[in-house]
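If you are new to this repository, start here. Below is one unmodified record pulled from the training split, so you can see the exact layout before writing a loader.
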Amino acid sequence: MSYYKILGFEREPFSTSPDPDFFYLSKEHEAALTNILIELRLKRGLSVILGDVGTGKTTLSRKLIQELKSRDDFIFHMVLDPTFDSEHLFLTSLARNFEIHDITSGSSATVLDLREALERFLFQKGVNEHKTITLIIDEAQKLTEGSLELLRVLLNYETNEFKLLQLILLGQLELYSRIMNIANFFDRISFKYTLNPLDYSETRELIEFRLRQAGYKANMYIFLDDAIKEIYQYTRGYPRQITMLCHKALKSLVLHNKFVIDAEIIREVIDQETKLGWHNKNILPQKAVMKAD
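And here is the target side for that same chain:
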């Protein structure tokens, strides 16, 4: 039997998979999601979300997809690994995933053929069928200069009233400097935001939220106050680090046949990590390089 069944959970509370049902909407995440949805409705084109590793960008993207799936006027695709070696490969991937049949059936299409087919698709769906075509790119810091230039070109496809392609880039902080170095790209960003780690109260709320989502209904607190303080001090509020540490603490709880997680258990888990050489000394809070705009 899984540890979470023993503790009275219906599901694993601290999985690191980007499950939107377990996505805790901090003030920053909620602001980012709400603004992205507004930008999409207005068809303003380009939104950029930055954040350090483990601040919740990928889970935010899954929450966004969950929102878009409930709306029949959106056609969207998400790119998880944007490491395309050439513009031709990138365009071919977009044509295939958006099911642009008049070009994907042929293998000898040129870059110009692919661009024109994509433009026809965007016009047909966006103008004639009143759909919102959305491309979401995770790990956007991996985009090559050529891919970024292609995206800049695609953002030029527009009517007098709106952009035909809605583009959302989610990337690590180094994406900022790369975008700044590309002429006529930064000034195309309609909404930009940087996700920072959680504060102490949000760390507590994230833990309690995940426990509830997992089906925990007992009145007794599993994580005591001193444990949460230790968790926050160690993780500095990074959601991924919080969930990983809480998962290990729950396993320790079962293994030691205890009923609650206190500071001692958290310190033991951290000490074990340190002894094994797995302690991450680089968990430090990052200052935002750009906020909402």
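Two things worth knowing about this chain: The radius of gyration is 22 Å. The domain at 3-22+199-275 is CATH 1.10.8 (Helicase, Ruva Protein; domain 3).
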